[in-house]
Amino acid sequence: MDSQRPGGAPRPPRGGGADAGDASFILTVLIALVAIAALILVPASLSASNSSFSILHQVPEGHVGVYWRGGALLKTITDPGFHVKMPLITQFEPIQVTLQTDQVKDIPCGTKGGVMIHFEKIEVVNRLRKDYVYETLLNYGVQYDKTWIYDKIHHEINQFCSAQSLQQVYIDKFDQIDERMKEALQGDCTQYAPGIEILSVRVTKPTIPQSIRRNFEQMEEEHTKVLIAVEKQKVAEKEAETQKKIALADAEKNSQVSKIRMEQMLTEKTSAMKQEEIDNHMYLAREKSLADADYYKVIKEAEANKLKLTPEFLELKFIQAIANNSKIFFGDKVPNMILDQRLLGNFLNNVGNRQMADI
C-alpha cells in the first residue's frame, strides 16, 4: 500500500528538490568563473589602450611598469613580471629601461652656401635610467624621446649644416658629425633630462644634388690620381735611397777591406823591417867581432914582432938577405963596406925605427 500523508495529500518525491538546487549553484559558480577569466585574460591580451579594463597585467623583461590613476602619474614603479591593478581606474604602460636605438629619418638641412641636402637616417643609441623613470615621465611624458632625440636631432643637424659649407659637411667634417651630435644631445639631456643617456650616434652620408655629387666624384678621382702619383714618387725615392744605401754599404765594405789589406801590408813591411834591422845588427856585431879579432891579431903580432926584432935578429936577417944576393962585387973597398960594423949598426937601427913607426 502506498503511504499517504494525513489529510489525503500526496507526498512529494524524495530527493528531487535537493538535486535541482545543487545544479543551480554549480551553474552559477561556472558563470562567475568565466566572467572573472574574461575580465582578467581578455583585456590583458588587448592593446595598451584597453589595458584599463584588465586586472592582471604583465611587465616584459627590460621594462618597468608605470601607472596613472585619474590621469595623475603614480610613483609606483614595478619590475618585470605579473602584477595586479584596479581596472578602469588605473592605467598601465611598460617603459623600456635597456638600450634602444631610435632612428630619425629624412632630415633636410641647408648648408652655408644654400645647397639643400638630406640625411636619410640617423641612429641614436640611448637608454633611460631606471631610477629616473618617474622624474622623466613626469616632466616630458611617455614620448620623452621625441622631445630630446627626434626633435633635438633635427635642430642640431640644421645648426651644424647652416654653419658649414657643402664641402665641409659632405667630406671635410663628416667624420666629426657623430661625435658632435652625441655631445650636443648628451649636454642638453644632462642639464634638463639627466635620466637619458646618449651612448652613440651614427650618421649616414647625406644625399646631395646629382650634379654636385658628380663634381665631388671627379674631384675625388683627381685627388686619387694625385695620391697615386705621390705614392709612386715616394716609392721611387725609397728605391733610390735603398740603392744609395747599398752603394754606401759596398763602398764602406771595400774601404774596410782596403784598410785591412793596408794594415796587413804595413804589418808585413814592419815585420820585414824589424827582421832586416835584426839582421843588420847581427851583421854589424859579427863584423865588429871580426874587426876586433883582426885588431887583436895585429896588436899581438906587433907585440910579437917588437919582441922579436932585436939587433941580433935583424943582423941575421941582413946577412941572410946578402947571402941570397946573387951579385958579387970585387975590389978592395967592398969588404970594408960590408964589414963596417958602424955602418951596419946604423942601418939596423934605422930599419928598426921604421918598423916601430909603422906599428
Automatic annotation (TrEMBL):
Under SUPFAM superfamilies, the record lists: Band 7/SPFH domain
Presence of keyword Heme: no
Its Gene Ontology biological processes? SREBP signaling pathway
Please state every residue range assigned to the domain named Band: 54-220
Entry keyword set: Endoplasmic reticulum, Glycoprotein, Membrane, Signal-anchor, Transmembrane, Transmembrane helix
Q: Which residues cross the membrane?
A: 23-46
Q: What is this protein called?
A: Band 7 domain-containing protein
Source organism (scientific name) = Papaver atlanticum
Taxonomic lineage: Eukaryota, Viridiplantae, Streptophyta, Embryophyta, Tracheophyta
